[in-house]
């Protein structure tokens, strides 16, 4: 009998806990629409629950303690509304998810606090920016600088606004999710303003990013992980430092980030891979190379095989290294050469520089990039730059149809990723471009044809004038 009572109590507790984790909505504009509740997990989103609203636009969605964090309601027409999934009862009503001014949080303390801050904080920031503008005028413009009273009043008002914001955040319960999320969101959203108007705050803001615990699951459930990383490194890049100083600061942040993540290899792989791609995309190659070599040399962690292959390309194919020679096996197109003079390998090419491009007809970006190279080829050729396109196509007809129109050398052995050339150059993505000198030293690993063309214009065209 006691066992039966215990089971009943446990079932009651579980049922009670489950019913508390619900979102009850009433939106007149969502009648009979499918409504989804979506959560965040690192860089990804996932479906928590889905239900069709009734003819009045009423619905109820469920979530569990595993979904603790930030989520959003998503309508059938992709309108969305952020909610905090903290285990509290949440009731919300309005016209539609897109008309935020019509939405009212009926029940849900944390969601009410989030709504209040999301409304008040931007107004404070806008006012601070206005006061900052006036502060500079009253400090630097001779017409106003002599007036001490308004200058002091401006500084007093700025301190009051900042204190008001800090007091609100400090008053939040430390056990609540909103007390973690709002300062994080404030940090991310403030980056552009700080870089443009409050540059004296840049060092403290960078330090705040460095103090973030990237192993904290609350960060993973915030939907801000990607923005945190991008904002951190964007601020360093746009902090007004010299490029050398920018890389020093980025390397310092990378050291702190990797050290923090060593205890969690899953997060280490996900976050550093995202950061690596970000640095590559922004052409911050010194920083991406530093990250790659740091991870490869780190003994206290295991890198996923695919990611490790990307990183290894940096160690083997970094700037200053000598690139492997390439034998032109398979089919070769060389319109600029007579048949008897077609080079047999890279080292046979008589030019000061050689651009090696790995791509394929099936690569989404390759047709555009290779067409741009074709347009620039005559100009490059005059500056002593040859181009060799290494195709990873497997189909002979596709390769010949694709490459036969290009004026530069094109080769294909139809082995795709298994091609010895692709393996020698540690190719893991297309298009991949290398600029070599006449001794095959790697001078540049451009991320686009426009970057390569800028190099030609700066170092060769302008240099020869």
Describe the structure.
- With about 475 residues, this protein is of the alpha+beta class.
- The chain has 4 domains: about 1-105, Immunoglobulin-like; about 110-170; about 200-315; about 330-460, 3-Layer(aba) Sandwich (Glutaredoxin).
- About 50% of the residues lie in helices and about 15% in strands.
- The protein has 16 helices and 14 strands.
- The chain has helices spanning about 1-20, 110-140, 150-170, 180-190, 190-195, 200-210, 215-220, 225-235, 245-260, 265-280, 285-295, 305-315, 365-380, 395-405, 420-425, 450-460, and strands at about 20-25, 35-40, 45-50, 60, 70-75, 80-85, 90-95, 105, 330-335, 355-360, 385-390, 410, 430-435, 440-445.
- The strands form 3 sheets. Strands 9-12-11-10-13-14 form a 6-stranded mixed sheet, covered by helices on one side. A 4-stranded mixed sheet has the order 4-1-7-8. The protein has a 4-stranded antiparallel sheet with strand order 3-2-5-6.
- A hairpin with a 4-residue loop joins strand 13 (about 430-435) and strand 14.
- Helix 2 runs antiparallel to helix 3 (about 150-170), helix 9 packs parallel to helix 11 and helix 11 crosses helix 12.
- The protein starts with a helix and ends with a helix.
Which CATH architecture of the largest domain would you pick? 3-Layer(aba) Sandwich
Number of domains: 4
The major pleated sheet works out as: 6 strands, mixed
Low-confidence parts: 4-19
**Helix tally?**
16
Q: In CATH's first tier, which class of the largest domain applies?
A: Alpha Beta
Estimate the helix proportion, in percent.
40-55%
Spatially, the strands of the biggest sheet line up as: 9-12-11-10-13-14
CATH topology of the largest domain: Glutaredoxin
Proportion of residues in extended strands: 15-25%
Name the CATH superfamily classification of the largest domain.
Glutaredoxin
Class by alpha and beta content = alpha+beta
Q: Outline, from the CA principal axes?
A: globular
Radius of gyration: 29 Å
H-E string: HEEEEEEEEHHHHHHHHHHHEEHEHEHEEH
Gap between N and C termini, in Å? 98 Å
The average pLDDT value, as a whole number, equals 90
Q: Count the E strands.
A: 14
């Amino acid at each position: 009998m006691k066992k039966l009572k215990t089971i009943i109590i446990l079932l009651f507790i579980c049922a009670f806990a489950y019913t508390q984790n619900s979102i009850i909505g009433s939106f007149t504009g969502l009648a009979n629409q499918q409504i989804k509740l979506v959560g965040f997990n690192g860089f990804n989103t996932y479906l928590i629950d889905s239900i069709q609203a009734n003819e009045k636009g009423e619905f109820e969605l469920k979530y569990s303690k595993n979904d603790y964090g930030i989520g959003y309601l998503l309508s059938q027409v992709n309108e969305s509304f952020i909610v905090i999934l903290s285990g509290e009862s949440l009731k919300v009503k309005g016209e539609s998810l897109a008309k935020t001014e019509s939405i009212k949080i009926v029940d849900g303390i944390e969601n009410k606090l989030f709504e209040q801050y999301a409304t008040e904080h931007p107004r404070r920031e806008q006012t601070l920016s206005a006061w900052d503008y006036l502060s500079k005028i009253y400090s630097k413009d001779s017409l106003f600088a002599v007036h001490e009273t308004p200058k002091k009043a401006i500084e007093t008002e700025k301190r009051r606004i900042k204190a008001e914001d800090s007091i609100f955040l400090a008053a939040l319960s430390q056990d609540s999710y909103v007390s973690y999320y709002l300062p994080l969101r404030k940090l991310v959203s403030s980056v552009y303003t700080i870089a443009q108007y409050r540059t004296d705050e840049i060092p403290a803001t960078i330090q705040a990013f460095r103090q973030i615990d990237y192993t904290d699951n609350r960060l993973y459930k915030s939907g801000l992980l990607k923005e945190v990383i991008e904002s951190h490194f964007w601020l360093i890049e746009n902090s007004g430092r010299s490029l050398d100083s920018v890389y020093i600061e980025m390397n310092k942040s990378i050291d702190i980030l990797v050290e923090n993540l060593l205890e969690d290899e899953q997060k280490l792989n996900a976050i550093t891979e995202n950061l690596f791609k970000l640095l590559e995309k922004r052409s911050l190659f010194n920083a991406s190379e530093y990250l790659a070599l740091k991870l490869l040399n780190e003994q206290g962690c295991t890198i996923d095989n695919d990611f490790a292959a990307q990183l290894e390309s940096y160690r083997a194919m970094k700037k200053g290294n000598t690139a492997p020679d390439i034998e032109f096996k398979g089919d070769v197109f060389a319109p600029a050469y007579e048949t008897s003079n077609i080079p047999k390998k890279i080292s046979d090419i008589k030019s000061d520089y050689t651009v090696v491009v790995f791509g394929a007809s099936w690569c989404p970006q390759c047709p555009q990039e290779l067409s741009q190279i074709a347009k620039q080829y005559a100009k490059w050729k005059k500056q002593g730059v040859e181009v060799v396109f290494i195709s990873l196509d497997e189909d002979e007809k596709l390769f010949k149809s694709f490459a036969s129109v290009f004026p530069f050398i094109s080769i294909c052995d139809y082995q795709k990723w298994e091609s010895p050339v692709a393996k020698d150059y540690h190719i893991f993505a297309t298009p991949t471009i290398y600029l070599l000198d006449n001794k095959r030293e790697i001078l540049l690993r451009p991320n686009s044809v426009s970057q390569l063309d800028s190099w030609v214009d700066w170092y060769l065209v302008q240099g020869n004038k």
